[in-house]
Fold:
Amino acid sequence: MIDLRSDTLTRPTDAMRQAMARAEVGDDVYGEDPTVARLEERVAGLLGHEAALFTPTGSMANVLAVRSLVGPGQEVLCEASAHIARAELGAHGAYTGLTMRTWIHPRGQVDLAAIRTIFAPDMGPFFVPTAAISVENTHNFAGGAVLPLDDLRDLREYATAAGVGVHVDGARIWNAHVATGTPLAEYGAIADVLSVCLSKGLGAPVGSLMVGSSDAIAEARVWRKRMGGGMRQVGILAAAGLHALDHHLERLADDHEHARLLAEACGIDPAEVDTNIVVVHRADAADFVAAARDEGVLVSAVGPTAVRLVTHLDVTREDAEKAAAVLARLA
Structure:
């Protein structure tokens, strides 16, 4: 089977497993795991922030990051198909007591005109006040779309003037960096807090990080423990992340090339594919998924008429070509 359901399906390479086996470890809840400390320092530095916090999942990193900006009875604004709104099982409301309001964009982009229409200043005991704006780069359900840097800078300027924070769900910000050549620190400068993931395109088995100021991370460390996310000798996993940053970052360009190959096979203009995700629209997504499975290709339905294809570390050029031939027959 050629598995295109998600880039979370990657398995550690032999070299990554060796790095994990050699990892120096300590108790991270006590702040004594040196490998975790190196990973946190490195990721914070790459994104131009003071500190970072290793978490078991991207959803936890997002919850911790958003709650650092938005309190109970306040709201965060995000695009309607954002991961925090659609795919985290209501965690932000459940843990933080916040609400969300959304704008709609077919490619998940920043739409300042729409944001202005839903932004709610603090008017006392009348309306839920907006405390932060969240964007996702790259945008999962919009087919891995990259958010243009100029739009992000405009958003930062608007948020600063309005006195609210900016959260970036950067689970796949590595893909945006490789696709555009934009330095990670320039993306980091847009945000008060970010989340980044190591277990998608980078190929680590587990792990994400929240990135932000030292104060925000110190508070998030307490909340991570409160939510059951404190981990002990977790340098074994942090070592996988460090190895991935050393060896798997630039190769994301291969995934992007393979995604364009799949898009073309499905009748989609490859120029419309920014990174490693392709969303194919069909009359019945479930039927398409079943037909592809019958021919040895696993894809996922992300809606009644939407099918997602995701390339990753474990999909070779040969795999992509074979999958493209199958998808072309089904298209």
